[in-house]
Design a protein that fits this description.
mainly alpha; 58% helix; two-stranded antiparallel ribbon; 6 helices; single chain
Amino acid sequence: MVNTLYFIPYESEWLCALLNSSTMFWFYTKISTVIRGGGVRFIAQYVSQLPIPSASAEAKVRLAELAEGATKVKGAELAEGEGEINRIVFGLFGLSAEEVALVTGE
């Protein structure tokens, strides 16, 4: 049997937004194995390597709002929220335009 359920026992919506950002996914694909279809499995030995940047109280509040909102919308509205999450996370890591292009594949 394969273990397929993982969770982080931490009450932080902003962290949920951060961990689901394209930046963190890009980084994760560099430190873990990618499975069939381009997916990844969030195993502790890899998740523990993810960098968590410092964030202002305002950024944490906005990311938490966006994470909560993502559970209630779909389509273009969801994509817009995900885009804002990604822009905030790019800023938290201080990514240049070239680095953003690398992460997003553009």
